[in-house]
Amino acid sequence: MKHTTRNATAAVLSAVVAAALAACGAPGTAKVEAGSGVQNLAAPAEKSGTITMVTKFADPKYAPYFQSVVKAYEQANPKVTINLEQVGDQPYKDKIRVLSASKQLPDIYFSWAGDFANKFVRAGLAADLTSVIGPDTAWGKTFSPAALKAFATNGKNYGVPIDLDAKYLAYNKNAFTKAGINAAPTTLEELLGDCDKLKSAGYIPIAFGNQYGWPAIHYMTQLNAYNVAPATLAKDYNPATGAFTDPGYVKALDQFGSIISRCSSKDANGVSHEAGQATFINGQAAMHYLESVEFSVLTAKGGAPKAVADNWSFMRLPAPQGAGGDPGALTGAPDGFMVNAQSKNAALAVDVLKFMTSQQNASKLTTDIGWLSPVMGSATSANAFPQLEAALADISKASQFAIWLDTVTNAEVANAYLSGVEGIIDGSKTSQDVMTAVQQAAAKAKQQAG
């Protein structure tokens, strides 16, 4: 999900889908097990039939890509018809709610990673694709491992990642040089020290705007992953088992507070992400935490001045020393597609998705839209600028995605974090204040899940 456009709607979206999928398991409704009804997902000997597919890529910048891939598949398989429907973000939320409740999902449907996808799995609406896209399969091995894992639940694969987005700290190499910083920091402690040097050199160390809440959530997503063991995170991010009592959560909030006090500003809640970004682009700030889908705005083609466009690189937000979590985790997530567990054409639907994620079509995604594909090697010097190509290589090395905190958690927990980190920024709340509210929200979510 592209956070740069959706802002803070994820929590609302999660609640909407939860209500829709809850209806699927209402009394008197037959509930199927995930993947039931799918006997064989291998490509059929004769490809024929009709496939229905719904995406949320109606934007004129994106829709033509999916239309062209569908047309190419139909041309290669003349006995197949793909009824493609593309709607915008909000219409998709409305549509998937209705289709889920009425059990009339299309053969292929869009999903964000995290608890959004897991709701379909829990409701028995997502086909188990492990036999064809699991990490040990030929198709599965073509994907970035972290992207594949983002759509896995309880060791099984339920989604096909279609694009990639990850969070990085972009930095101005000239600013670093002027501040006497010879190399990018490798620990959070080094980063904080470099922020002090950058301040002394006259720079805003990290450009930051948190007007809509999600930019701070991205920091917390990464810091939680660094400070809390993966198994504990998985348990707490599950609304049925979440408790958030691990001391690593408080450490993460304390570290975020240090980033604000030493690298940014307590006034960030009144500044938009785009306005903060502008201070990096105009050379006033030395660093900016942004998504890989935003990289293009830092290029000459994207409008950045030459002084920045020719002199920027990126790094992951460095992990703190002695971190108790996963230092190889990277904040971000792919968008993807799921196959209806009750589809009569599931094998054909899988074949369509294999075609869409072929090396050729994955490279075409980057060429046509400028998005990274989760297919390894799909971004090259021929279709991407150097930083984007390097980002794909780095994502492929990630141990796992730390999926956006406001989409991977229950809506109540997400809202507690959203308001809490705003208080950390302006100084009105302590880390313990925030965690008390998060723990209360988790208890409420657990009660609702029960």
TrEMBL record:
- Xref: Pfam families: SBP_bac_1
Could you list this entry's UniProt keywords, alphabetically sorted: Signal, Transport
Signal peptide residues on this chain, from the entry's feature table: 1-22
Q: Which domain of life is it from?
A: Bacteria
Q: Is the Zinc keyword given for this protein?
A: no
Q: Which family does it belong to?
A: Belongs to the bacterial solute-binding protein 1 family.
**Protein name in the entry:** Extracellular solute-binding protein
